[in-house]
Specification:
The structure is a single chain. By secondary structure, this protein is mainly beta. The protein has one domain. The chain is built from three helices and ten strands; from the N terminus they run βααβββαββββββ. The strands form two sheets. Strands 1, 2, 4, 7 and 8 form a five-stranded mixed beta sheet that branches. A five-stranded mixed beta sheet has the order 3-10-9-5-6.
Amino acid sequence: MRRCSLFLPALLALVMTGCSTQPPGEDESTAETSTSTTTESSSRNQLMTDTDLQSRWWSWAGSAPRGQDPVRDTTGRFCAVNQPERVWFVAGTYGGTVRRSCRVPAELPLAGPVVNRVTDTAAACEDFLAEAEGTASVDGTEVTLRRIEPTSITYETGSGAARGIGCGLWLRVPPLSPGKHTLTLRGSSGEFSTGARYELTVTPNARN
């Protein structure tokens, strides 16, 4: 992930990893009512709009306790720190690749950016997206990424609330079955590149 000096030099313009099972162009705000047979778990995976997803993810990434930054985490030790309700977030890096081992609740979908940015203008996000590329896979099966165009967001940081324009390539993965899984994320924009390989142990007791 990469930083640049916008509102908060220590936080804004991070570029990180993430994925989406929501097909590009589908209205996410209505996804939860698409069929009467939609399960509760899959509905949770589609409830968040692009704005809500980015706002919640940046709040999670930017408000970690000192020394427990999920983006700087090189082992997965801090995977579970401050995870929100209804979704399990994954993080990328400030550049380069990492390998993390994490325990994940069986009932929660996964979400996060493969490569993303938050800045102060839509034009900066558009330039970033013009060169953005990314891939994601679960157990070797490719996951379709959602391209999120420049979106106004408000999110929490260690210094309080911040506002910006968010964009990127994002993933959403439905709740995984109990057991071992591998999630791989790789993204780039221009000369910047990032990646993460998650060795996941999915269990109903993952938060304990």
